[in-house]
Batch of 4 targets.
Target 1
Amino acid sequence: MLYWLSSQQLWPINDFCSILALPTQVLCKVFIKFEARLDKTRQIRYTGIKDKKRTPPSRKTEGRYQKKTYTDSKELSKAETMIAQPSPNSPAIRESKINHKSPVLHPLARFVTEETVALMFSIRIEDIHRIDCKRHVVYVHAKTVSRFVSYADFPPILGVSPPQWEDVARWLKRWRKRWLSHLAPEFWTKFYMYQFQHARSVEESREWGKLVALIRPILSVGAVQQLRKAQRPDSRANF
């Protein structure tokens, strides 16, 4: 049994409860002395030398416990370049500039793309700041453009559901109100001519031709003739 002699009385230290009963100052001194003795015991056990500092490892043994690092500045810059620069075959990833501002999505909103807006206003995609798809209209804010555009001005595209008779009814309503016509605007002809001329493969050009065949009744005779000439000879569709 251990005893701690204070100025007033003898304190027995035989269990955990009696330790908690000690005053705060006495308890701190007890643990400080116990900690110092425990450190000395550990030093003797692991080093075998009492009160002597351990010598640092030699250069031969030091490399065994260190991770491999870039020691050469050229080697480090080369590694950073490999991480920072993507490979030329990797696709370009950029943030979409189309924002849907309304909780109710317009049925023709699936035809709104940045490429169509850039071709519509003869600007670059990089110059477009944002495209806000509102409930009944599209707002385009670009470097030199700030306009509201109707959903009916956007032609159908590939990659989404094809146009239905409900979409045709919305187009005709818009065109009759604005141009007093039941035919698609001239921009649609310009848009599809651009797609035929910049098609990356025969299959893509053929898919555009099939899409034009679906909307042929709302295209003028002159527009159909221009699109036939713009299409590739090996991928012409019957429209």
Note: The two ends are 106 Å apart (CA to CA).
Target 2
Amino acid sequence: MQNTRKQAIHQAITGPHGSQLLALAREQLQLARELPPEPAPGVLESGRYPHADAREIILARIEVLRQEQTVIINQFEGGGRFGR
């Protein structure tokens, strides 16, 4: 990880967005814990994996949360207190 990215993460966490970032991380962790296990090879193709829809929904939500985190952290990249 680049030093400027580390600095941006530190500024975002210690700044006004810290509680929001923490909430996003907590939700990601909770969703990861609820995530059904990945099916064995060939199971999805057979149509016998009952958790496929739930797994897809959870993974999509985790991705949205990651994108929200990235948007917040990117505001602090570029050297300034509030980013570019």
Note: The two ends are 20 Å apart (CA to CA).
Target 3
Amino acid sequence: MGEATRSWTEKPEGAIPSFDLEDYILARMDLKGMSVRELAYMTKIGRSRLHDGLHREVDKRVALRMPELVAILEALSISKIEAMYAQEVLQKNEGIELKDLLKVIPMCLGIVTGLPEQIITVVQHVDGLGFDDIRPEHGEAAQNLLVRAIEVEYKKLGRRRSQRFDEFGEE
């Protein structure tokens, strides 16, 4: 089998596109400039074991145990919710590069971190509304509203950027 690639848009001959949490961990290590040796020291997991579990060639990887993954995530300051989002996003988004996902995932975390507490506060402070009124479909409706608001703001950003390019030729 061929070598794994972390770029879904570049698929060298024989490459196996990989969408695993291990790929996100490797990308975060690259971002921090961290070696397997440093990660092994921080996690107290053997260097060889880490190398085998985080091998860049997918077909040469061995499965990491849950306690090992937890130690790795803690050492890289990756929260459980970030790991969950990374896993979901990696599996569902072909055609986007991992370096770009490294920007999207923290944004999503910024949206959902603290959200349950804020919703509880809203429900408690709106007269005539109770927790029995909350329905799962409200989540989808809220998500649609949020995505539309983000789209509007990014379009404004795009227009401003375009105007700067038009006025000055280059940014």
Note: The chain has eight helices and two strands.
Target 4
Amino acid sequence: MPCLICGDETTVRSHIIPRALIHAMKRPGRSLVMNRRGDTGWVECQSGAVDTRLLCERHEARLGVFDAYAVKLCKTIKREIDAGQLVIDVSNPEPGRLVAFAASVVWRYAASRSDLAPQRALGVYARRIERLLFYDEPFDPPLLVSLNAYRLDGPEIMNMGAYPHLYSELDRRFRRFIVCGVIFDLMLDNRGPPPPMATLTVNDRSGFTLFDDFPAKVMREPKLATALAAMTLPRRPYRRRP
């Protein structure tokens, strides 16, 4: 399939979420469990979802600049989480790159799951994201960043991963994904974030602080519930059918 941006017939592997972040989320001795793309189930993965039909080498490398920025930032946050820090100060010297990273994950996912037609999932925003990522045209959709505060019945906050999915809060809809204990909420409408969540916006901030301020029951999001529950259950032994 030709590159979705330039039509080059030679396309390369494109990770929906950067492989380095998928590997950083893994727990020793266990495969990473994430929500099944576009469904309510869960799936074990080694390096995350890959699509070889999206971009040529040149345009995939362009997204790699944003990926590298976010990988460094997210790994730093995860180290703080693993060390038990409840309040984390994050350096974000190039906030535009973090917004572009979130937009690229949402765009890749939309293109991959909609038979190479991201506009089916994103509408007019598919084109605006493409112009931002590949042509440096101005587009600054609100990006909200917070700590993963999903819980089961116990007090522990679970580290999990999630592919982009629609999430609603306070009469707003977000494109949400989760990596390394960090929630990314990208808004693709003209209303802006609801006032109680506005402090989570990072678009023009060279630094921000994360803390557990929105603990939530995971059952509020059925698409994530089975994935998160699978992380806490022992793996069933394989039994060969007679």
Note: The chain has a mean pLDDT of 82.
